[in-house]
Amino acid sequence: MDSNIKRELILDNFNYPNNKGLTNDPSYIKKSNKNPSCIDHFDIELKIEDGIVKDIRFDGEACAIATSSLSIAIHRFIGKSKEEVLNIIDNYKKMVNEEEYDSSILEDLLAFDEIYLQESRKTCATLGVNIIEDILENN
Amino acid sequence: MHRDDFNILNTNIIYFDNGATSLKPKCVTDSINKYYSEYPMNAHRGDYNLSMLTSNLYEKSRDKVKEFINAKSSKEIVFTSGATESLNMIINGYFKHALNSNDEVILSKSEHASLILPFMELGVKIKYADLDEDYKLSLDNISQKVTNNTKVIALSHISNVIGDKRDIKSICEFAHKNNILVVVDAAQSLGHTLVDVTDMDIDFLAGSAHKFCGPMGVGILYAKEELMKNIKPVTTGGGVTSSFREDEIVYKDYPFNLEAGTRNVPGVIALADTIDYINSIGVNTIEEYVSDLRKYLITKLSKLDNLDIYNKDIDGSTIIFNVKGVFAQDTSLYLDKKNICVRSGDHCDKMLHEVTGVKNTVRVSLYFYNTIEECDKLVEALDNKNILEESLGI
Fold first, then answer.
1. Nearest to A106 by CA among A129, A124, A123, A127
2. Which domains, from first to last, does chain B contain?
3. Sheet strands (E) in B332-377
4. Which of B324, B350, B394 to mutate: most A Cβ within 10 Å?
5. Which ipTM value was assigned to this complex?
6. Which residues of A touch B344 (CB under 8 A)?
7. Structural domain harbouring A118
8. pLDDT tens-digit series, residues A83-125
């Protein structure tokens, strides 16, 4: 992906993130997490029905990388099965950690394919998907 | 000033995170190296010459701290791991036993977590003094919260986020007229402004060596002798007892009853060298220099229309701000790409945003080795409409 497109995607999703704002609907599973190494913090609500991720909402304060990566991930995950989402997350985290990964399933998440070059940004880029992964693995 | 004393300043970094920790001059690192290479013994454990030498240097450091803060006796000084441990010892070793459930403690929402949390854990009634419009804490704010049940006023000398310096002498005078004890967190003030516990009539004080060019892991606990006598050990173990049997523990006299286990001996010894170093420059000289530098920087930053500055009118060493539309961490990562080190976040003050309305900020905190040229580079870096985009590193 071209660097200009990456930057545009990231800034758009930071300034106008998908699905920001919580529903407080009890049918959603809720989980929060804070990046231990910085100040990013997210509350996430996830609705799953019949093994399909129906909706994901979030709130919190976080940097451009954390917010945009979560926003792009939410757009990518909704409508997918639990297994599909976990597979995307697994490959996304491999990419962030500079391991072998399947690029064909990541789509716009490829905007972060060079984030491994910035050590301090790796935890930002995975804060949101780690919460979603935790919810899916435990529900 | 004195930039040649710091090896790290030979690199290209511009260090503006002195509120988190200061840089360490060569005389301090030399002191630590000397300990490990020449007399790496435990203090107060051996009778052989090298151990006695170490013990003497350790106790000389206590005398040095006594002089530095103008305490009446070296017995009023305990070495800890840092201001956090000092405050926990004061609160859990003294106030836990001295306060009852009706007693009240006055704090403010601009205090550091290490002062607020131990009192919260104690379960006493806490009243938060209001802050002025510019987020300063004054005696008037404090006095409005005092009742017949107020037993403690606990506050930092210089707040770690806003950076305002409190009038500790007047606060202590007021407190003592009302039979209230005063706990002072001096983490941001020791080595930055004059701290005279006798003149200010401070009851308890906590500080950290690393905030004023000293080593990491060394703290100071000061208490007036009549109060020090009644601080109970929070941690016990080796070195604090003269004897114990199945049914009896006989503790050593203070301050030794409060220094359980092996201490940070090289750090304590290097603290004496730190104090000599700071005194050689002069605390008043440092304070004046930093104040002038901050005035220069705030004047320059105020001209940038892309910044929100939250503590413009403080006479201190910190400036907190945000770049409009940019998360604080992104700003700090952008500046890092230009070798400028600043802090972003809530700065261990989780409640200040309730007053200011701003949760996360960028903090620039100055010390005597910072320069006008460094300030100019910061201003130049912040005078940029593409900070968010450039912070991405992509």
1. A129
2. 3-24+282-391 (3.90.1150.10), 27-280 (3.40.640.10)
3. 340-341, 343-345, 361-365
4. B394
5. 0.81
6. 38-39
7. 3-137
8. 999 999 999 999 999 999 999 999 999 999 999 998 889 999 9
